[in-house]
Amino acid sequence: MRRFLQTLRLLPCATMRPHFITPQLDRVRAQLRAGQYAAADMQMAALLPESLEPLIEALARERGAAALADRWAQAAPHSRHAEVLAAHVHIWEAWVLRGEGYVRDIPPLRRKKFAEVMLRGQQRLLKIIENDPGNALALAGLIHCSIVIGAGEESRLRWLNQAMDASPFHCPALIRFAQGTLERWGGEDNERYSFANWIVENAPAGSCAHVVVADTLFDDAFMASGEVEDIRLLARCTGNAEDAEWLRRALLKWLDATPDTLRQRVHDVMPAYDESFHSLCLERFALAAYFAGAREEARLLLTALRGRLQAGEWENFIAPTPLWWYPFASRTRGMRRVHDAVCRDLGLDPRAICA
User: Angle, nearest 10°, between helix axes 37-45 and 49-60?
Assistant: First the structure.
């Protein structure tokens, strides 16, 4: 029956998988609730920066996170992670107040309140940097805050350099800085391309930092989606040979592959990447390849993805829902439908690759 409904396109083929950080998050949460702060610190210190940041963000979103961070800081005053968590609690509270829309659409009182709360998070991060100038995760948080509220914009490049000195090509810091180069976040014309290109040329092979190219191309498609709702037509409008070649360069650097070894490299490394930030990179590169016009690479990456989604980027391209469909609609179902539509447009059968 399930396959019959998928054939009729009444049921999406793609599925939602847990976020890659969930296993580590469960372990750290249990340690913190048991008061095993040293064990939690050791567990977090062993993570790569691109895994540590989403773990702290996930902890900050949980109920009682502020009280947990305070207890942790009191019990382990020298912890590098407790104060960063406390700062991220403020950052998350600010985002809840702000919402995901454009700042011009936020009522004035709420806009003022969200900036005040975000500034509290930024002040806590600045205090961390005073005592620990090499705390790259705190520096990445400072870059994020300065982009969202504009405070400390003149220090953004200095913070990035500090993070890079402490942890070369620190992925969260680079991704945050790249966000500030986008025009909708105040970046100058073409600044996003020059910064992403600098990463492709200088970041080491295998680094997740190369996903900045995918994010840049994805953002171009997102900005165009306001005028073109059909994702298939949108891909025809955004795709071009120059962007496709640029995407290929970044993809090859990320996977440390050559054009001849790319297919085998994807087959070899993706199973090992399943519980790391690389799994999110796979989704972002797949969607960006589709919009850039690198259709062969998009087919390869979507096949490797096997319809198991965790990234929120798919949500931005959910088609408007007819009124009669509202009782059956949901965010996750819409994301899965977007995935299936992309597959079909590329000549892939989503029933086969999601089996």
Answer: 140
Q: Tell me the Ramachandran region of residue 187: left when phi exceeds 0, alpha when psi lies from -120 to 50, beta otherwise.
A: beta
Tokens of 133: 């100038």
First to last CA, the chain: 14
> Cβ distance 142 to 129 under 8 Å?
yes
H helices of 203-261, in order, are 211-224, 231-238, 241-255
Entry pTM? 0.91
Q: What pLDDT is recorded for position 32?
A: 95
C-beta of residue 188 within 8 angstroms of C-beta of residue 150 = no
Query: Which residues touch 41 (CB under 8 Å, ≥6 apart)?
Result: 76, 79, 80, 81
pLDDT band at 7 (very low <50, low <70, confident <90, very high): low
Q: Is pLDDT of 148 > 80?
A: yes
Per-residue confidence band for 190, with pLDDT thresholds at 50, 70 and 90: confident
The residue type at 39: A
